[in-house]
Specification:
16 helices, Four Helix Bundle (Hemerythrin (Met), subunit A)
Length: 320
């Protein structure tokens, strides 16, 4: 949430043609009662794209699913993994790991309402004092019987009190073996691993052990070239030839269009700060955008200056 907006997804799609991109989580009531056109907006270039929903009311989730299908999403995902207090107060997210019957009812309503989009589930391995090896197989069994065939499993428990959402992404220990055990026991299901993956080779290792895929969030955001630039090789494409500077130049028409419609450049450049992560010039690229893109009236020239300075440093390093 607050990260994978439409500008972020457009950038990521330029880097990878084939990965599945996810929206920020949006609650079903927000879609039904809020600005649905804005919340559902995406560029056709973003396909394949999944809409991630939060909620626990089957009727509301069915209505939100129909809205997502009408908007053209390829997948509708229900989030049973977010541990924030705000999410818990709305009775959705990770707290629903304790209510598999309700989750199954929600999934059935979404499946019945879908007019083409695949319905999927993102969950944890358990919450609080639950024993994951006992409850996760039962949860998967119950929910899959309601018509869903794809589960993305964040391989950590969530603690609904005592840990912040950030701590819940890092402190509870990972249990990849349990996720692999689920896949072996249910080869008929698509099982995708989430949590703690730091490199492309980490992702490949888990997939090669028999999983159907991996979901990567923070690393793909902060260092997109590390993950996304190589992901398409898993789909049979050649090793990527695009460089960060190629991606920047491809973004310029999109950014100019956004500015012409009255948008601000930092609404997009904030997602581009990690393009040169780990490379010479990364610091000046990030610093220039961070210091100048927020200034009122900032335009494309900010990006051009940042790119020129970055490439100059890289050229000097190569000559040296």
């Amino acid at each position: 949430m607050d990260w994978t907006d439409r500008h972020c997804r457009y950038l990521h799609r330029l880097i990878s043609k084939d990965v599945l991109l996810y929206t920020e989580m949006v609650t079903a009531p927000a879609l039904i009662h809020g600005d649905a056109d804005r919340l559902l907006e995406f560029n056709d270039l973003e396909h394949p794209i999944a809409l991630q929903l939060g909620g626990s009311n089957p009727n509301q989730l069915a209505q939100a699913t129909r809205m997502g299908c009408d908007a053209g999403y390829d997948e509708i995902n229900i989030n049973i993994g977010c541990p924030s207090d705000r999410v818990q107060s709305g009775r959705f997210g990770a707290c629903l790991m304790k209510e598999p019957d309700l989750v199954a009812e929600c999934v059935r309503a979404m499946t019945d309402a879908s007019t083409g989009a695949e319905i999927t589930v993102k969950c944890r391995i358990g919450v609080d004092d639950q024993e994951p090896h006992e409850i996760l197989p039962k949860f998967i069994e119950k929910v899959s019987n309601s018509g869903v065939n794809s589960f993305t499993i964040h391989a950590r428990k969530a603690w609904l009190s005592g840990l912040s959402p950030k701590q819940n992404r890092d402190i509870p220990p990972l249990d990849y073996e349990l996720v692999h055990k689920i896949k072996k026991s249910r080869p008929d299901l698509e099982i995708i691993l989430n949590g703690g993956l730091q490199t492309f080779s980490d992702a490949v290792k888990q997939i090669n052990r028999g999983l159907d895929g991996v979901m990567i969030g923070r690393v793909a955001y902060h260092n997109p070239m590390e993950i996304l630039a190589y992901a398409d090789t898993l789909f049979g494409h050649d090793t990527p030839s695009k460089t960060p500077s190629n991606i920047v130049r491809e973004m310029l028409p999109y950014i100019q269009s956004h500015l012409d419609l009255g948008g601000r450049i930092n609404q997009i450049t904030r997602h581009m700060l990690g393009l040169f992560a780990g490379q010479i010039g990364a610091r000046i690229w990030k610093r220039t955008l961070s210091e100048e893109a927020h200034i009122k009236g900032a335009g494309i020239d900010v990006i051009e200056r940042a790119l020129t300075a970055t490439l100059r440093l890289q050229s000097v390093a190569q000559d040296g």
